[in-house]
Amino acid sequence: MPMKLYAHPDNYKTKKALICAKYAGLEIETPNGGAADQTGRVPVLETEQGCIFSSAAIARYISRINRCTALYGQNLLEGGMIDSWVEFCTHELEVPLCAWVLPVQGVFPEVPEATKCAKEDVKSAMTVLNNHLLANTYMVGHSITLADVSLFCALLDGMSLVLDDAFRKPFGNVMRWFTLCLAQPEFKAVVGDVKLCGGGAAGAAKADKKEAKPTTQEEKLKQEDKPKTVKPKSEPKPKGEAKQDKKEKEQDETKKDEKPAVDPVKKKKAVIKEGGKRGVEIEGAADMGGLQFFCTSVDEPEGDIELLLHSVKAMNEKSDPTEEERKGGSGHVGKMVFSAGVEQLAIVAYVPEDKQPELDCKEWIEKVLSLFGGKVVTDAKDYCQGVIPTDSNNNIFPLKIREALILEANNFLRKKGLFPEDNGDDDDEMVFGDDDFPS
């Protein structure tokens, strides 16, 4: 029997509970009236055992139902951290945002002094979030939790109605995280597409820059009496000299903009060398940690999808133990490798033949690419290639999104039971990341 949630369908608090339900795999109906009349409160969640009211209590209850989703964290410490951010969301973000947003929605008349204070409080809260997300992909741990759901939903109306381009500009980390959350299918199913607020503050900014016109006769006279500074005119150069100077200046500027040509043979050699070394490192990490799959990034291909494929194939080359400098040797380890360039993030997924019954290479790369609207370039049972183009309008930059995608690739493997779980209770557990393998 599905649970019933009696709540205002358009309220951000209702969406918080519904997103959590999507993650928990629960079927929840949202009828009108009913149990809400018995308590006099909404929202109310009706279960077979009884009713729960208040949006915070409902969200916490749903988040704890399915522990596999880790919406309430992987351990007690993460659970406490999630509670901290949920409390922060309620008191530091939702209160000022409501004071700013609700008058715009016509719920009550605007009080200018209150709106002014609310804007400053929202800015302070956003600064805290932005600083935290500088070094973190998600609010707590390595996956979506109730902390992310709560903060995302609290910001939802603000992002659509009042947080314009100028206000959002300093908070690039928050916007990257917001876009990442929105790309999750569980979020998308509940909130759909979110249209961000445009540049509403631009007009006001321009108005401030304009010089105030004198209002009285006395002020006008004062302005007229101000001495006007006249720039001395420089003597004109002869026509021939002027043209020559201009031509030389243009040539100098062109030389500055030109980058030295890259030798494709040397570049490919550097790519293969880096890939070979990384292959040895992955082989060692897999043997020590018992890993079947590994996700990492390389630098040399610089976002070139074909060069990245050469790099991955170099990782998979059979290693010759007699060589002074071993290369490759990780062909038995499945992997997803990322390379960030200026124009795009290139991704290559590889699944060895013996692991193909357990993992579909195309399904794996499609899941990762879907987070930021990427596309599959080539697909096969063993190798798949994909790219995510840079999109400055949506704050999608290869270096910024790379770590989030590595985490997503690992999370996909965890759900398939192909990647070790982090239980947080093993002192001898070994965790490997890019910092352990310097290029």
How many DSSP E strands? Answer: 9
Helix content bin: 40-55%
**Order of SSEs, N→C?**
EHEHEEHHHHHHHHHHHEHEEHEEH
Which class best fits the helix and strand makeup? alpha+beta
Radius of gyration: 28 Å
Q: Low-confidence runs (pLDDT<50, min 5 residues)?
A: 34-40, 200-216, 424-436
Distance between the termini: 55 Å
Main beta sheet strand tally, sense and closure: 5 strands, mixed
Indicate the overall shape.
globular
Main-sheet strand order equals 5-6-7-9-8
Mean of pLDDT: 82
| Beta-strand share of residues | 5-15%
Tally of helical segments: 16
Sum up the structure in keywords:
439 residues, alpha+beta, 4-stranded mixed beta sheet
Describe this structure in words.
This protein has 439 residues and is of the alpha+beta class. It has helices at residues 12-24, 35-39, 55-65, 76-104, 112-133, 146-161, 165-168, 172-183, 185-191, 202-209, 217-225, 239-257, 264-289, 305-316, 361-369, 398-415, and strands spanning 3-6, 28-29, 44-46, 51-53, 293-297, 334-340, 344-350, 375-379, 383-389. The longest helix has 29 residues, at 76-104. The chain is globular and about 75 Å long. The chain starts with a strand and ends in a 24-residue tail after the last helix. Residues 34-40, 200-216 and 424-436 have low confidence and may be disordered.
